[in-house]
Amino acid sequence: MLLLVLLFCGLTLAQDSLEATDTEQTEKASVGYPVVGDILRELGAMREKVGALENRLKDSEQLIEELRSREKSAVMFSAAMDGGGDHGPFNTNKILIYNTVLANVGAAYNKFTGIFTAPLTGVYYITYFYHAGGGNPANLSLIKNYEMVALTSDHGSSHDGADNGGNAVLINLRQGDQVFVRMQANSHVYASGRMTSFSGFLLSRGWEEHST
């Protein structure tokens, strides 16, 4: 009887040992070889990450193109007269030539002629200033294609040691339009020390003309 009990206990222990071994092997297999559902979930997560990266890449490419477009459309210039002291008076009108270029993005200002030629159609901000002695008049006109756009003026006076003046406008320009500063006959400015200047920049590309 005792022998039968011992034999039964031995068989039970052997069965438990085999079941434990099978469980361990199953767990190892589960860890080493994920089920298909887990693989699909991982693939889905990877697709989402790749999609997010693709969207970010597209946004970056679009931003780069916008920056390149802005760079191509940037137009600005600033120049001053530097050297020569008193400039004028002359008995005829003179285009002022600002020989010292401080900035010329877009290369639209010509320092040899004093003329700015609009490279793009749009709205521009143009400004000019002068310094002059007070004994002679100073009359400067901003000209667009030989038509006056703005004027700054000061009469001569023996009681006035020096004058400063200027003007500024927002102006519609088409590609190829020319803008310059014209000094009227019998006027003068001071051409040294960069006190007399001419500047402008493209504010907005294109514009709509409305008939009235």
From TrEMBL:
UniProt keyword Aminoacyl-tRNA synthetase present: no
Bilayer-crossing regions: none
InterPro entries: C1q_dom, Cerebellin_Synaptic_Org, Tumour_necrosis_fac-like_dom
Domain named C1q: residues: 73-209
SUPFAM superfamilies in alphabetical order: TNF-like
Subcellular location, principal: secreted
PROSITE patterns the UniProt entry points to: C1Q
Locations listed in the record: Secreted
Gene Ontology CC terms, in alphabetical order: extracellular region
Coiled-coil spans in chain: 43-70
This protein's UniProt keywords: Coiled coil, Secreted, Signal
Entry annotated with the keyword Signal: yes
SMART domains named in the record: C1Q (SM00110)
Protein name: C1q-like 23 kDa protein
Organism: Scophthalmus maximus (Turbot)
Originating gene: LOC118314148
